[in-house]
């Protein structure tokens, strides 16, 4: 299942990369021909999206490397790092360029519009191509959401895979950006004022800045050590509590170490009737059971602790505000 998800993510990113590369070239030519700031901003938008796909492909490749002595928990978090770099790329190469074009148009002398039909044709073709990429990304998101029993919105909020989420977000922004460019081009032609072109360019810049912020914020939590999905943790806790050797699950700690990879630690008050050999066997059995039943658990640590230890209770209270 994990291999299918990875291959699906790679295909989704490759589709978006090919489409954005072609669209960027079309928009750049149309921007030069028409002299439209909004069209040039959209060219910058597509260049930023192309860079994003390159970063995402890098993330997919590097995050699959196996664990080694220097990185005992693997390289899964590289996917979050490169996705963060992609967000920065969108802001720097897309939003800043669009803002600059908008300001230049509004502050400079009035500009004549040339060959607007070329712009309309390119925007229509770009919209059709972007729609193909968007549909591909949406199909994968829907499939993953259905597999997890979630709505699409819920899945986008909780997913620890930034690649498909990023492609879907940037494709959605691309479709909106094309509509903004179309409006700027059309209003410029109707009114004869290049102000509308500049306003459309500023709107595209604001859109890209919002997308970059959303992407960066989503990856921030994953980079600094976000806990695993609460439904997974609840299910694991229930299985632990059901074991005959376990009296009480004192504390649970987890962290996403990559997409579908979770570091899991549990502090458990085992039955006082167990001797040291029985305790060791119980820990090994429970560890094996959890890894078998929950594919996401990449590393499992089980620590025997007394339930009423005051220091332990204080740490749990400081973290959660209550004893679990």
From TrEMBL:
On whether Membrane is a keyword of this UniProt record, the answer is: yes
Keywords on record:
Membrane, Transmembrane, Transmembrane helix, Transport
Q: Which SUPFAM superfamilies does this chain map to?
A: Cation efflux protein transmembrane domain-like
Q: What is its main location?
A: membrane
What does the UniProt entry say about where the protein is found?
Answer: Membrane
Membrane topology annotation: Multi-pass membrane protein
Q: Where are the transmembrane segments?
A: 12-37, 80-97, 117-135, 167-187, 199-224
Q: Which residues form the Cation efflux protein transmembrane domain?
A: 13-223
Q: What name goes with this protein?
A: Cation diffusion facilitator family transporter
């Amino acid at each position: 299942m994990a291999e299918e998800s990875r291959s699906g993510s790679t295909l989704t990113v490759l589709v978006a990369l090919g489409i954005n590369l072609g669209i960027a070239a079309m928009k750049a030519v149309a921007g030069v021909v028409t002299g439209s700031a909004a069209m040039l901003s959209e060219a910058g938008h597509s260049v930023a999206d192309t860079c994003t796909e390159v970063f995402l492909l890098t993330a997919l490749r590097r995050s699959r490397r196996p664990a080694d002595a220097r990185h005992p928990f693997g390289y899964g978090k590289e996917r979050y790092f490169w996705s963060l770099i992609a967000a920065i790329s969108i802001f720097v190469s897309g939003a800043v360029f669009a803002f600059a074009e908008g300001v230049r148009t509004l502050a400079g002398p009035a500009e004549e519009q040339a060959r607007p039909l070329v712009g309309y044709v390119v925007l229509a073709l770009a919209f059709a191509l972007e729609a193909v990429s968007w549909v591909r990304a949406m199909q994968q998101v829907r499939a993953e959401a259905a597999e997890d029993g979630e709505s699409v919105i819920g899945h986008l909020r909780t997913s620890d895979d930034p690649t498909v989420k990023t492609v879907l977000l940037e494709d959605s922004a691309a479709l909106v950006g094309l509509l903004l460019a179309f409006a700027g081009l059309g209003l410029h032609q109707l009114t004869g004022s290049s102000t509308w072109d500049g306003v459309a360019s500023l709107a595209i810049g604001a859109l890209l800045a919002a997308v970059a912020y959303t992407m960066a914020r989503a990856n921030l939590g994953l980079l600094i050590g976000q806990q695993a999905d609460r439904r997974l943790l609840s299910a694991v806790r229930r299985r632990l509590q059901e074991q005959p050797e376990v009296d009480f699950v004192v504390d649970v700690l987890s962290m996403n170490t990559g997409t579908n990879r979770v570091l899991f630690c549990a502090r458990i008050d085992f039955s006082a009737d167990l001797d040291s050999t029985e305790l060791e066997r119980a820990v090994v059995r429970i560890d094996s059971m959890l890894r078998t039943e929950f594919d996401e658990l990449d590393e499992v640590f089980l620590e025997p602790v007394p339930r009423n230890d005051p220091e332990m209770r204080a740490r749990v209270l400081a973290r959660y505000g209550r004893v679990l």
